[in-house]
Each structure stands twice: as structure tokens, then as C-alpha cells.
Amino acid sequence: MHSSLVRIQNVFGYFTSVAFAVAAAVAVSVLLSSQTPSASLELKNVQVVKGRPHYYSTKREEYAHVKFDLDAGMRLAFPQPPPSKLTHPDLTSLFNWNTKQIFMYITASYPSTSPSIPPSEAVIWDAIIPSDHAPFHPNTYIHPTSKTPPKSKSKSKSKGKPYPEGASAGIVKLSNQKPKYQITDVSGKIAERENATLSLHWNVQPWVGALVWTNTKSYGRWSGLKGGADKFDFPSLKGSETIKKEDLKTETGAEKNRGSPA
Amino acid sequence: MEPAFRRGDLLLLWNRGMDTHVGEIVVFNVRGEDIPVVHRVIQRFGGGSEPLQLLTKGDNNPVDDTEIYARNAPGQAYLDKERDVVGSVAGTIPCVGYVTVIFGDYPWLKAVLFGLLGLSVVMQKN
């Protein structure tokens, strides 16, 4: 029972047991981290136009173009910040030791035409925000800066970060942001639908363990999301002569730009 | 679904009585094919009395999945949740499945493994 093969087997078996135990501990200990997310989301403009929103659209249909303001700001959850900073909204506390990245997305949900069918939902904007420990991937979101981009590409290699200058991961401040996706309805008509809601959601992708989505209710140390929703109605169809082509441009995400600022 | 999941990660799925919402990650088969695809739901219509229809997109793809849905008649513009979706991702364990991936990519490794096992059986004293 003392051959090297048996010893290797024992060591390997012990290694896998310990690895699984540590992974289970990491996955479960996430419940102990405190989260206090909050954000403010405001609809800036919505236009409904008739046209071909996708390159594969075979017929003209109505689609909606929604612009919004998002303020998901910063507050260090530990140590306690000075009271003046407490008014800022906060998404940074969602990053704990088990967070690989957070997928933030903004959805527009609107009721369907018949009462037996639940509301339809569509994502209009999303961003992948990695945690600071995660390895770099060209698909991460790069927060737009208010400064103009540098003219020469060779000199200043500005490595875009997923958060604004001087902030930490989880802060996203967008104003008059263009959507990434237009909203179309399966029936082809989206004008004059009422009671639509624009809301912010996130999906925390962990290193190991359960995936977590937005919680609006509080569970123990995890506070629910405060704010981050806005109600609106889809306006009526706008004639093509009153809409400028630039107003309907969508944002291209990092997955299309592959490293250049989104 | 990079950078969230890489090849070799184990995904734990759940599919009991779920009302799939946007933002959830679903595993589905394109109708007619047996290739499971792990992508995120970005639109949903229907549900309740009508079949729930979903549109998906991979996080690492610049466009949604309309192009990979079935094209032949009858084509698919959306996924039907009951028929096409295998499950929704609820948890993940990284790197555990990499052994299976390696054996799939390099089938000769299976022969090597069996050879080593045979050798160890022959060389043991009992």
C-alpha cells in the first residue's frame, strides 16, 4: 500500500476533495456578502418608426428606438463612506469575491394585446462588466468618456475601462444613451402601446456556483434594487420625413468592436 | 457565451415550470439539429395561452440568433420554449468538463488511457 501509484492516487483524490469543498464554500459564502444596489434610470426619448430594423427583415414593420439616461453610481460598501456620498446610486457592491462578471441589461416590457398573455419583454441595451480580477476579454464593455477620443492611435493606447475615469467597477453613468437593439413586436406593430416599463437588470456570473439575477426584494444581507425603472408609453408612428437617420442609429456593442471603445 | 462560460465549464440547468424571462441563459437545440447552443434570451413574446416565443443572442456575438435558427420550410423566426429549449442555466462549475472535451478533441487519448490502465493491471502484484 505504499507504492508510488497508490500515493499519487491518494494525493490526487485528496486534492479533488479539497478543491470541491473550497468551491462549495466559495459558492455558498456569497450569501454573506452585503449588497446594496441602486440606480436611476430615466427614459430620454422614444420614437416609433416604420422600416426594416434588421438586415434580415423581409418586410417593413414598426420598431421603437428608445434612448435613456442611466446613473448606476458608486459607493464603497466597506468601510463606511461619509454621509455626503450616500446619495449616489450604487452597483459596485454586487462585485464580491465570487463575481467573474456582471451582465447589465436594460429591458423594455410592455403588456400584450390580449389579457391572457403575459407582457412581452425586449432587451434594448446590455454591457458586460468584468470584475477587476477577471482576465481581459475583448468583449468587455468600455464606458464612453466625455473627452474626445485621441486622434493618434499609436501614441496614446488608452485601454478603455468598463467604468468611467476614477471610478470603480459597477459605476455606469450614461446620458442620452442610444440603444443597442431596436424593439420590434412579433405582430409588427408597436405604436401607441401603453404601460411600458423600462427597467435595469443584472446577471452576476460567478466563478463557481449559482447565477444570480436582479432582486428587487431584500434577502438577508442582499438588499433589493432601489430605483432603476421608468414607465412610459410608446408614441404613435412618426412619418419618415420628420425622423433624421442619425437619430435611429444604434450603439454597437463591444462584441462588434472587439476592443475599440463601444 | 464567452467571456461568461468557456468550453469545459459544467452548466447546471433547470427546466421545471419556468417562465423564461429575458436575460436568462437557455440551452436550446436548433430545430432539426442536435447541437445544443447556450445563449441568452433577449426577447420574449407570448406565454400564457399562446406558446412562449424567445429570441436569443450569444454575449460574444454581434448579432442575434435569427440566422442560426432553422431556415427550411417551415422556418423558425423565434424559439418555441416548450419544444426547443432544453433548460435554463442556474449554476456553473468551471473547468470540470474539460476532461470530456479533451477526449472528444483527441480520441487517441482514450486509447492511451486504456493502455495505461491495462499496464497497471498487469504490473500490480495482486
User: Uncertain spans of chain A, ≥5 residues at pLDDT below 50?
Assistant: 73-89, 150-158
Q: What does the largest sheet of chain B look like?
A: 6 strands, antiparallel
The percent of residues in helical segments of chain B reads: 10-25%
Q: Strand sequence of the main sheet of chain B, in spatial order?
A: 1-6-2-3-4-5
* CA-based shape of chain A: elongated
Tell me the β content of chain A: 25-35%
Number of strands of chain B: 6
Helix and strand succession of chain B? EEEEEHEHH
Taking all residues together, what is the mean pLDDT of chain A? 75
Protein name (chain A): Signal peptidase complex subunit
Organism (chain A): Vermiconidia calcicola
Protein name (chain B): Signal peptidase complex catalytic subunit
Keywords (chain B): Hydrolase
Q: What's the layout of helices and strands?
A:
The complex is a heterodimer of chains A (262) and B (126).
Chain A: H1 4-29, E1 38-51, E2 61-72, E3 99-110, E4 120-130, E5 172-177, E6 183-184, E7 196-206, E8 209-210, E9 212-213, E10 226-227, E11 229-232, H2 254-257
Parallel strand pairs in A: 1-10
Antiparallel strand pairs in A: 1-2, 2-5, 2-6, 3-4, 3-7, 7-9, 7-11
Chain B: E1 10-14, E2 25-29, E3 36-47, E4 50-57, E5 79-80, H1 81-84, E6 85-93, H2 98-105, H3 108-123
Antiparallel strand pairs in B: 1-6, 2-3, 2-6, 3-4, 4-5
Protein name (chain A): Signal peptidase complex subunit
Enzyme class (chain B): hydrolase
Protein name (chain B): Signal peptidase complex catalytic subunit
List descriptors:
heterodimer, A: 262 residues, mainly beta, 5-stranded mixed sheet, 30% strand, B: 126 residues, 6-stranded antiparallel sheet, 6 strands, 22% helix, elongated, EC 3.4.21.89 (chain B), Signal peptidase complex catalytic subunit (chain B), hydrolase (chain B)
